[in-house]
């Protein structure tokens, strides 16, 4: 992932490390927040349709999710690759525009409400078409 043409890790350490944490801790804290927010938002929509994202449960399906890019205002693109027993069966993409008046990590998570809901709808549709 890039953020304003910076590698994400370097951007987070340089611009979001308000508590002067060691670099690895700042990066891990950010990624944990983003992962938790993604799963929570997605499951809000998925569970209503009989699906659930989990890093804890074994399944024939695997979803690899990554952020392609982001801007400092929280605008971002999420990409996902859905696999069934190691065979890629679908790619899913969602985007959200940015906002303003906050730190990047806050804006990103706020804008994930839009992108992850779109992503979840596309994931549900993918499962319905399988």
How would you sum up this structure, described in words?
The protein is globular, with a radius of gyration of 15 Å. Strand 3 (61-70) and strand 4 form a beta hairpin. It starts with a strand and ends with a helix. It is an alpha+beta fold and 130 residues long. The chain has helices at residues 8-15, 23-46, 104-129; strands at 2-3, 6-7, 61-70, 76-84, 87-96. Strands 2-1-3-4-5 form a 5-stranded mixed beta sheet. It is 45% helix and 25% strand. It has 3 helices and 5 strands.
Individual helix count: 3
Could you tell me the radius of gyration in angstroms? 15 Å
- Main pleated-sheet profile: 5 strands, mixed
Bin the helical content: 40-55%
- The oligomeric state is single chain
With strands numbered from the N-terminus, the spatial order across the biggest sheet is 2-1-3-4-5
Features:
130 residues, alpha+beta, 5-stranded mixed beta sheet
Topology:
Layout lengths: L1 E2 L2 E2 H8 L7 H24 L14 E10 L5 E9 L2 E10 L7 H26 L1
Parallel strand pairs: 1-3
Antiparallel strand pairs: 1-2, 3-4, 4-5
Helix pairs in contact: 2-3
């Amino acid at each position: 992932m890039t953020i304003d043409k910076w590698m994400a890790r370097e951007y987070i350490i340089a611009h979001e490390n308000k508590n002067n944490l060691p670099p690895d801790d700042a990066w891990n804290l950010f990624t944990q927040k983003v992962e938790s927010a993604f799963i929570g938002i997605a499951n809000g929509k998925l569970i209503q349709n009989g699906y659930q994202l989990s890093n804890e449960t074994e399944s024939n399906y695997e979803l690899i999710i990554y952020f392609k890019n982001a801007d400092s205002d929280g605008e971002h693109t999420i990409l996902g690759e859905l696999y069934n027993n190691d065979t890629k069966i679908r790619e899913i993409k969602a985007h959200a525009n940015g906002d303003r008046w906050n730190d990047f990590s806050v804006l990103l998570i706020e804008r994930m409400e839009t992108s992850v809901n779109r992503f979840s709808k596309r994931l549900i549709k993918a499962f319905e078409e399988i």
